[in-house]
Amino acid sequence: MLSKEEFINNTKIGKIVARKCTKCGHLHLVTTYFCQNCGNKGFENVIVDGKGTVATYTIITVPPDGYEKSVPYAWVVMQVDNSELRISGFMEHITSPADLPLGTKVKITGHDEHGIIIEKQ
Ligand SMILES: [Zn+2]
Questions:
Q1: What's the CA-to-centroid distance between 27 and ligand 1, angstroms?
Q2: Closest by alpha carbon to 94, among 54, 44, 47?
Q3: Ligand 1: distance of its center to the CA of 94 in Å?
Q4: How close is the Cα of 61 to the center of ligand 1, in Å?
Q5: Beta strands in the chain (DSSP E)
Q6: Domain of 65?
Q7: How far does the centroid of ligand 1 lie from the alpha carbon of residue 76, in Å?
Q8: Most CB contacts within 10 A, which of 6, 12, 48, 84?
Q9: How far away, in angstroms, is 43 Cα from ligand 1 center?
């Protein structure tokens, strides 16, 4: 099993814990009972480097409660290097698409009450 605490503790050191299918190797970010790729039921935890590229993002200028001091920020979907995993987190001080072209190299740098923190590499 993969606990939320274990997942968060790894993001704090720039790592991602994923569930790897023991049959086909497909990675999953959350605990699932069946592999989404092949239907196998066996998994093992693997640690993946929290680095990748920007796949897509949304710039938030009107914050939800609790994010006021971070705006404008981007909610970023990162394509993790050398895997099919996508993971999302937030990046502070992004005001326009010119600040963050798609494909920009980024990395996980921490975790706070809002979630995963992503910064440019
Ligand atoms: Zn599988």
A1: 8
A2: 54
A3: 37
A4: 40
A5: 15-21, 27-28, 43-49, 51-60, 73-80, 86-92, 105-112, 115-120
A6: 4-120
A7: 27
A8: 48
A9: 8
pLDDT at 107: 98
Helix, strand, coil content of the chain in percent (nearest 5): 10, 45, 45
Pair 109, 99: CB distance under 8 Å? no
Q: Are 74 and 91 in contact, with CB atoms under 8 Å apart?
A: yes
What pTM was estimated for this model as a whole?
0.88
Phi and psi at 54, nearest 5°, equal -75, 120
CA distances from 93 to 55, 59, 73, 74, 103 (A): 18, 10, 5, 8, 18
Q: How many domains does the chain have?
A: 1
CA distance linking residue 111 with residue 109, whole number of Å: 7
